[in-house]
């Protein structure tokens, strides 16, 4: 049986590859999605991969994930630090929830160090660049009782 995993991306992540490449790298979100979908297939996971700049859409998707009993990998981006509605929606998730950040938020200035989402997350992955998505997916597979794919 394949498990359903939502991979949700927050504000400005549609600009990956263009926006501050010295921080976020040159890999685009479309390239990340291709890599995630390929690995998900190997891990026997079904991925819903989405991005929004809208706080309301993110809340709707988290509620949808809850209703579908899905696990969640979320890169909340700017929603991490001030969005109580996204935080409240994250708390609905009963399956594993992994928070993901491309940069190491703990090395950044104070504005980016304290994520509300971390308080509800099963685990947090940060600072691994675009590869963090693949690490998160492997960690999710293990959390869901599936064998990870290393290689």
TrEMBL record:
Pathway info: Metabolic intermediate biosynthesis; chorismate biosynthesis; chorismate from D-erythrose 4-phosphate and phosphoenolpyruvate: step 3/7
Residues binding substrate: 75, 88, 102-103
Domain of life from the UniProt record: Bacteria
Keyword Lyase: yes
InterPro entries hit by this protein: DHquinase_II, DHquinase_II_sf
Active site per UniProt: 24, 101
Gene Ontology BP annotations: amino acid biosynthetic process; aromatic amino acid family biosynthetic process; chorismate biosynthetic process; quinate catabolic process
UniProt KW Translocase keyword: no
Catalytic activity: 3-dehydroquinate = 3-dehydroshikimate + H2O
Functional description taken from the UniProt entry: Catalyzes a trans-dehydration via an enolate intermediate.
Family: Belongs to the type-II 3-dehydroquinase family.
Name recorded for this polypeptide: 3-dehydroquinate dehydratase
Species: Paraburkholderia fynbosensis
Gene name of this polypeptide: aroQ_3
